Automatic annotation (TrEMBL), chain A:
Belongs to the ABC transporter superfamily. SMART domains: AAA. This is ABC transporter ATP-binding protein. Transmembrane segments: none annotated. CDD domains: ABC_NrtD_SsuB_transporters. Signal peptide: none annotated. Residues 37-268 form the ABC transporter domain. InterPro entries: AAA+_ATPase, ABC_transporter-like_ATP-bd, ABC_transporter-like_CS, ABC_transporter_ATP-bind, P-loop_NTPase. The lineage of its organism: Bacteria, Pseudomonadati, Pseudomonadota, Alphaproteobacteria, Hyphomicrobiales. Keywords: ATP-binding, Nucleotide-binding, Transport. One of its GO terms (molecular function) is ATP binding.
Automatic annotation (TrEMBL), chain B:
Gene3D superfamilies: MetI-like. Pfam families: BPD_transp_1. One of its GO terms (biological process) is transmembrane transport. Residues 59-239 form the ABC transmembrane type-1 domain. It comes from Neoaquamicrobium microcysteis. It comes from the Bacteria. The keyword Transcription does not apply. The chain crosses the membrane at residues 9-28, 59-85, 97-119, 125-144, 220-241. This is ABC transporter permease.
Length: 282, 250
């Protein structure tokens, strides 16, 4: 179950794959998972102002599959955010490369990102904040409003569309930020501890909503969390990271099936995974 | 009595008390008019200024200098602040000169401006511009730099163009600091305009004050102090109101 090369490189990608037609692609997807992006020996070294360097990420190799829910767990400071920011193109690589199946994202609507803390534009109402990406992408206003409202309803903020960010609680703001990241249906959604600030009940609800949205949109999700339970509940696969230098120490395919609901929390296999992951985090 | 009525009472009572004390002092000690005129003399001078119409050309002149100086100065301050805020490398080059220019007392520069630009309107506007320019520039730089790192990341994720990022994110985020600069600049513009009129020319509120002072028309001088103060407050309030309207999200 632990890290091995075979799990990482579960598919050998033919070079002409991008030229394959849609039908062939779908056929392939039925049998093997399609690699959406491959991180190939990616490293990140930060240089501090004193000239010292911090190796935030040792050579890290990881395939991210089309349509999967992949969680990253690991102790604080092990490079989870760094890896996510690299995937998002927010951080330059110090070494290695990212190979995207259809080429690196070029459109703003390709990637969704939810930051560790809610990042909203304080002068815009909640509705305008959620519609912001659609405005940037020149979606007609009516359609934009419709989609933003539907998304707000989904995250339970339907009654707050006219409110300003400062008038909402931290958890509500984070839900608005999540709605903004999902409203344009990005191919890959990168989430950095998005539910860390939510109470347990809301967190459970948001988990289910997230799975529902994911099933609807078919987006690929890479999800950073501190909660083992959350990771096990949501994920198809879980990557365990360890610190100093940051690296992936284990990668697991959770055999809990694609359908997740509260019932799964009573499944013995679920408990088994919790204890496995907990041990590996130590 | 509620706190608000009490506060209102104070707001009315304090100036009345001050005027009363002023009046009592002048009458009891028989102070000469050219040293300290009684309040009623100042008031009737004020009324005369407006009813006879003497004040209007002067007021119009001063307001004109303020508006022109403020407009040109804040446009230039914004433009340079924008360049420096967006490209810190430029700041490293021109920063020291700007700092030198700013620390030089503008009042000392005023005679130089008169020498260069003559006794007319131009030198007055130049002096006002020189006072308005700096606070607006600093406000613009601070505003653009105050955009949180995460907002820059958001723009990078959504791949906003430079122009779009500026219009949709950076400028709105900078508005509070820019307005802080504009408000300081508005007060400076008023001071600058009156100061310039003090030094040269035959019109304007500043000129009227010099005239009143040198001819010992002390009631007129006091009336002018009142008028210029009120003008300063009006200019400041106009900006504060615009700010309040623009920044209702704060
Ligand atoms: N901009 C930076 N400059 C220098 N060092 C950095 C920078 N960002 C992160 N680091 C370092 O890189 C390492 C990984 O940081 P990162 O934020 O990726 O950790 P993390 O796993 O997300 O932690 P947490 O769970 O606390 O959010 C840390 O040791 C951190 O000190
Ligand atoms: Mg982090």
């Amino acid at each position: 179950m632990s890290f091995d090369g075979k799990v990482l490189f579960c598919e050998h990608r033919p070079n002409n794959e991008t030229k394959l037609g849609k039908v062939e692609k779908l056929k392939q997807a039925g049998t093997h998972p399609q690699v959406l992006v491959r991180a190939d020996a990616v490293t990140k070294i930060y240089r501090s102002r004193m000239g010292e360097s911090v190796e935030a990420l040792a050579p890290t190799t990881l395939d991210i599959h089309e349509g999967e829910f992949l969680s990253l767990i690991g102790p604080s400071g092990c490079g989870k955010s760094t890896f996510l920011r690299i995937l998002a193109g927010l951080e330059t690589l110090s070494g290695g490369k990212l190979e995207w199946r259809d080429g690196a994202p070029t459109k703003g609507s390709d990637v969704g990102f939810v930051f560790q803390e809610p990042v909203l534009l304080p002068w815009l109402s909640i509705l305008d904040n959620v519609r912001f990406p659609l405005d940037v992408f020149r979606t007609p206003k009516n359609e934009g409003n419709e989609r933003a409202r539907a998304m707000l309803a989904l995250v339970g903020l339907g009654a707050f569309e006219k409110a300003l960010p400062k008038e909402l609680s931290g958890g509500m703001r984070q839900r608005a930020a999540i709605a903004r990241a999902l409203v344009y249906r990005p191919r890959i959604v990168l989430m950095d501890e998005p539910f860390g600030a939510l109470d347990l009940l809301t967190r459970d609800r948001m988990n289910d909503e997230l799975l529902r949205i994911k099933n609807e949109t078919g987006s690929t999700i890479v999800f950073v969390t501190h909660s083992i339970e959350e990771a096990a509940y949501l994920s198809d696969r879980v990557a365990v990271m360890s610190a100093r230098p940051g690296r992936i120490s284990a990668l697991h395919d959770l055999d809990l099936g694609p359908e997740r609901s509260e019932a799964i929390k009573d499944d013995p296999r679920f408990y088994q995974w919790l204890s496995t992951l907990r041990k590996e985090l130590r | 009595m509620s706190e608000t009525t009490l506060r209102r009472l104070f707001a009315v009572a304090t100036p009345l008390l001050l005027i009363g004390a002023w009046w009592a002092y002048v009458t009891i000690f028989n102070v000469p008019r050219f040293v300290l005129p009684p309040p009623d003399a100042v008031f009737s001078e004020l009324v005369r200024l407006f009813t006879s119409g003497t004040i209007w050309p002067h007021l119009a002149h001063t307001v004109g200098v303020i508006v022109a100086g403020f407009a040109i100065g804040s446009a230039a301050g914004f433009a340079l602040g924008f360049a420096l805020g967006k490209w810190p490398r430029i700041e490293r080059i021109v920063g020291p000169y700007l700092f030198f220019f700013q620390t030089a007392p503008k009042i000392a520069l005023a005679p130089l401006f008169i020498l260069w630009f003559g006794l007319g309107l131009t030198s007055k506007i130049v002096l006002t511009v020189s006072l308005v320019f700096f606070p607006v520039m600093v406000g613009t730089i601070l505003g653009l730099r105050s955009v949180p790192a995460n907002l820059h990341s958001l723009c990078a994720i959504l791949k906003l163009s430079q122009r779009e990022k500026l219009v949709r994110v950076e400028l709105p985020a900078a508005v509070p600091e820019i307005f802080a600069g504009l408000k300081v600049a508005a007060v400076q513009a008023t001071i600058g305009a009156i100061l310039a009129e003090w030094l040269s020319g035959g019109t304007g509120l500043g000129y009227l004050m010099v005239f009143a002072g040198t001819t010992y028309k002390t009631p007129l001088l006091f009336a002018m102090v009142l008028v210029t103060s009120l003008l300063g407050i009006a200019v400041y309030q106009a900006l504060a109101l615009t700010e309040k309207w623009l920044l209702s999200w704060r």
